[in-house]
Amino acid sequence: MHPKPPPNSRKAKLYNSRTIRSEAVDPSLNDGILTIPQFLSSREYEIRAFEHSQLNTKYASSNRVFQSLPRTLRRRTASHNVKRIPKRMRKKALREMQSSINGVPQKKKQPRGRERYRLKQMKRLLKIASKIKQLRGAAAANTSKTIPERLKELNIQLSELQQKKLKPINNICGAVDHCCTGKICPKPSGNVKYGSRQKTFTWQPTHIWHAKRFHMSKKWGFQIPFSPNQKCFRATSRVAKQGTIIFDTSYYAELLVECPNTTSLESVLQEITKYNSPLPPWLTQGSRAYTNWIYADDRRLCPGSLLVHGTSVLVRLHPSMYEDFFRYLVTFTENLKASVTDCRYAIGSLNLMGPTALQTIGKVLHLNGAKRSTSSNWFLYCNSNDPALIPEGTTFAFYVDDPRCWKRPVSPPLAPKNNRDLLSVLSKNESFIDDDAIRGLFTSEGRTDSYKDMYSIKRIGKEFGLSDPFSQRIRSSSQIPIIITKGANQTWTAQAPWHWIQPIWSKLVQVPGIKTGGMRQEHQINFERGKATFPYDYPYLSEGYKYNDALQEAHALKREKMPPSKKQPTSMEQGLELAGGDWWFLRKWTFTYPLIEKDVIRNHPFGEFTDDRYRRILDENDALIVISAVREEWKKAKRPMKMDELPVTLYKKNDHVHKAFVEGSFKPDFSKFPSLPVVQKKFQLTGKGTIKDSARIYEIPAGNHKEPELKHLIGFITTGTFNMSEGVPTGIGSINAKFKDRKRFMIRNVGCTRFYYAKAEEIKT
C-alpha cells in the first residue's frame, strides 16, 4: 500500500487547527498515580484561558436583554419599550437601544394617547368634509332642506337632549349600574373611543388586560379570553394542583328574582332547582348557596348557582342559556307577582381554582365593618391548610375596601386564638353573611352607592405620591359589597359590582405565583379532575348538541378547502362524521340494526324492495344505505332539529322507555325512533396508545373477533388527551345506556385503524 501523500498548503492550515498539542510525558504522573495539585498548577494557564474563552463567547453573542428573559416575562414590545423589562436590566436595555451597532436608525416618535386619538378624529372629519363637498355639487343635494332649516332642526334636538334627565354619576370614572326589570337589558355602550367594537360583543371589565395577553373568542355576546398567548399546558396543570389560577367569568349571567312572599319564593326555588317540597332549610334561609344544575320546565338547562336573601334570589348561570331562561322565568313569575331583573351587566364575577385560592383572594380583600364572627372565620378559612374540608356552598358576604389603596398584596392575619379549630367551626353550620353587604349587591341603589367617589388610576397615583413613602396604603371612602361562594370542583366564585371587577383583578395578578387562564384552561382543569365541562361534554343537552353540530360543520368546511392529497382517508369511518360525535348516526344505527332480516336468503346482489317501494334491510350494507339516504334528505332540509327532540338523552332509571331499552324488551316504531339514552363515563387506557377528541367507543366483541366492527359502536369521546394528573391518556365520553354496567371497552381514534383497551367509570351528573 502506498503511503499517503503529504497535505498541500491549502489543507495544512485546516489540519493544524484540529490538532491538540499535548505533552506525552507529564511529571505529575508517577507510576500510574496522578498528583492533583502538581497537575493543576501545571495546567493553570490552560484552564483559565478556557474559562475566559467561554465567558467571552457568552458575552460576545448578539443577544440583547429582552431576548435573555425567561418565557413568562417576554413581551412583544420589550425591544423598544423598557417598561416591559425588569428594572434591574433597564439601564443596559437603554444602552442597547441607543447604540447603532445594528445600523438601524431610531424610529420617529409617534403620537400616542390623546394626541393620537385627536389626530384620528381630525382624519375622520376631513373625510366627512370631502364627502360633503362632493354632495354639494350633486343635483339631489340641492333639492333637500336649506342649511338654516337643518340647523334649526339640530338646535331642537340639542335642546331636547339637554332637558332629558340622565342617571346621575357619583364618580369621575363613569361607573354606573346597568340593569333592567322585566326585560332583557340592552348592551352597554361602553367607552366612546371603543364603542363601535362593542356593538355585537360586549367587553368584560378586564378586556384591555386580557386582549394584550390572550387569544380572545367571540361567544354568547361577549369577548371572552380563550387561552394565553404563551404555552401553558404543563404550567396550568401544575398550578391547579399547587397554587391558584384565576378567571374573569363576568360573561356568566346574573338575574335577580324578587318575590312578594315566602310562598312564591318556594314556588320559584322548586321550579329552578333539583329540590321539590320540602325545600332544605339552608336554601330557603340563605345560609348557604345552591351550586348545582339549573332547571326550567322539568328540564335540565346548565350548571349554575343561586343565593337566597329574604324573599329575593340571585341566580347565576351559563350565558348560552340565559336569554331563554330569563324569558321563561318572566312568564312563570307573572302569576306569582314577582319581578325579574336582568343584572348581566351590573354584577361581575371571578373564578379561582387551586388549593391556595382562598389564601390568594384573602391577600387583596380588606374587610370593612364586618361582624367580628364573620371576620374571624374569614381569616380562619383563608389560612386553612386543607380547603377541601370546606363544604360546597359555603358563602361569605361583606364589605371590603378598594384593593388598589394598598401598594401590594398583604397576607391575611391569623384568626383569634380562641377560633383556630376549623372542624369545630364547620360543625356549627354558622352563616357568614352580612345582610347590609347582600342588600348592597342585590339592589341597584346599593351598587350605585359603592361607586361613590371611586378613584381613577390617575387619582390613585396622585394619592400615593402625596402620602408618606413608608406608608403601605392610602385612604378611600369606597366600600365594595362582595359575595364569595365555594362551588363545584373546588372552585371559589367572587361576585361584585361590574366596575369593581377590574380593580380587584389588577391586584390579584400582583400576587406572586398566581396564574391566569381562559376557557381552554378551565376545560383542561376539569378534564384532569375527571369532571365534565359544560357545554363540550354534554351532547344530550341542547347547547352541547349545538356545539357538536358546529364542530362538524367547521370541519366539513375546512376539509372542502383541502387538496385531495391532504384529505384524510375516511373508508374506515363507514359513513360517520369525522369531527365531534355522530349521535344522529348512532341513534339510527342502534335502532335499525335489530331490524335486519337475518333469516332471509338474498337471491341476487342487488337491493330488494317491498310492494310499497321501501328497501328491505337484509344486511348491514342495506342499513347503511338507508341511513345515508335519510341523512342526505336531512341535510338538504338544513338539519331541522328541535332542541327538545335531540338524538340522544340522558338515561333515567325511572323512565319506562329507558328501562325497557336497557332490558332489551323495547321495540321502536320504524317511522320515528326515540332519543337514544346514554350515560356519561370517564375512560382510561390500560396499555399503550392515545385518546383524542371524537374517538369512537366500541364494546369488546365476544368470541373469536379480535377487532370490533361497526355493529359494536356504542358511543363517542367528547374530550380526550394526555392527562397530566393521571400520567396516562384519559377521555370523557357518552355511551349507549345498555352498556352502562360494563367496565372495559375498546377505543379507536378518527382516521385510525388501531384499537386500544380502556377501563371506564361512571361520572356522577
Automatic annotation (TrEMBL):
<dbReference type="GO" id="GO:0000172">
    <property type="term" value="C:ribonuclease MRP complex"/>
</dbReference>
<dbReference type="InterPro" id="IPR039182">
    <property type="entry name" value="Pop1"/>
</dbReference>
<feature type="domain" description="Pop1 N-terminal">
    <location>
        <begin position="39"/>
        <end position="258"/>
    </location>
</feature>
<feature type="domain" description="POPLD">
    <location>
        <begin position="492"/>
        <end position="567"/>
    </location>
</feature>
<keyword id="KW-0819">tRNA processing</keyword>
<dbReference type="GO" id="GO:0001682">
    <property type="term" value="P:tRNA 5'-leader removal"/>
</dbReference>
<keyword id="KW-0539">Nucleus</keyword>
<protein>
    <submittedName>
        <fullName>Uncharacterized protein</fullName>
    </submittedName>
</protein>
<dbReference type="InterPro" id="IPR012590">
    <property type="entry name" value="POPLD_dom"/>
</dbReference>
<dbReference type="GO" id="GO:0005655">
    <property type="term" value="C:nucleolar ribonuclease P complex"/>
</dbReference>
<dbReference type="InterPro" id="IPR009723">
    <property type="entry name" value="Pop1_N"/>
</dbReference>
<dbReference type="Pfam" id="PF06978">
    <property type="entry name" value="POP1_N"/>
</dbReference>
<dbReference type="Pfam" id="PF08170">
    <property type="entry name" value="POPLD"/>
</dbReference>
